[in-house]
């Protein structure tokens, strides 16, 4: 049985080739659109993450400054950070026993 | 007596009477799919079809339907084995048309009623009661999945589409006898699970029944079939079963084309081409379903099974598109032939409405193919929203969109070019 081989020009003129282009045009349009939307979303998400990281960096810097200041200083001299209750700012001593449990020494009454 | 039902070499007739240019159908169907996908992408952003399956036990088989099934089987097989030894035997048409093609509309209308009708389940039930082994003697191996059904389906489509004896009574008798023995022995040994996963016709019916709008769990219950479709059990061989159904339908069109007929193919070549069609369908789907980002290796491996149910509407659409005229007109001839075997139906005549109105037939064919694919795109989009990570919900479907359009393109081209 001789193999059936179509000449090159017949392949390009074949109805499959002629039909495939108009049939797949909307598919290509949809694919390009979806990929473009996905890329836009990815860039927007990356921008949001970047901005969030910048904001967190600023907050951390402010917090470091607040820890570096004298806790006994007058409140008017402290930076503009959320004020903590006075008991939370009291110094405490923490020791660790052999079992690894924390025991906070409280002032005797 | 009606004249013999002439079965071509591939068992059933092809679509040769389509009056509209297939170019319009191909391009229009591809556009319909792309537009459907675009609308879904921007309007359907949350899963709507993924609901837990109701925790209701499978109802028992209905005895009266089991009795009807036994009667029908005795009628069909009695005609096949005791009827004429030539191609005029109505048993041939009853197997090829009423059983094989008629199974699809039956499942769509009445759900998985095949389970009630199956005479092999009735025999297994009876033997199970006698031997006090209702669940068989050996547990059905989980790793077998749907593979026995896939092999059985391939065996049937090979008989119908490739075997040189497709229209030969002796060949069909041999195939049916082998099927009956294997099915009964398998059921007795492995229990009812053999029919749920191994019987090709039972499995095929259960798949299509997922799309039955009026019946759920074999009981009347109007519902959205797209909600029950994702509950198709995922087991090994699932994609292969669907690929055999889809690939064989495509091969049926291709094998009737002048391009293929000119080569005067041997049985071996036809078998190889049938395998190739099924393999291309399965491989393309396997690749497209996995072509997404943002998932782990295990999640990617599970994607073909999780999305395989989306191909069922395509299978149903192609079955109707390909075999509609054969089902309605050949089916009438088959029923009349069966009636004549018991002394009835001599005054009945066949209506050839579709053959006399090829334009109507063409419209229906295109409609079934496009509708099957549009439903598939909807089901695929919804399951993608569930199983794909949020950032990849749309991009993860692009390969599937290309595949669906390619299936539509190829399917309609083959259907109309024959």
From TrEMBL, chain A:
Region (Disordered): 47-86
Source organism per UniProt: Aeromicrobium alkaliterrae
Protein name: Transmembrane protein
Keyword Transmembrane helix recorded: yes
Superkingdom: Bacteria
Keyword annotations of the record: Membrane, Transmembrane, Transmembrane helix
Spans through the membrane: 12-38
Compositionally biased intervals (Acidic residues): 51-70
From TrEMBL, chain B:
Signal sequence coordinates: none
Residues annotated as transmembrane: 21-44, 64-83, 95-114, 144-162, 174-195, 234-254, 266-288, 308-328, 366-386, 398-416
Keywords: Membrane, Transmembrane, Transmembrane helix
Top-level taxon in the UniProt lineage: Bacteria
Record protein name field: DUF1345 domain-containing protein
Taxonomic classification: Bacteria, Bacillati, Actinomycetota, Actinomycetes, Propionibacteriales
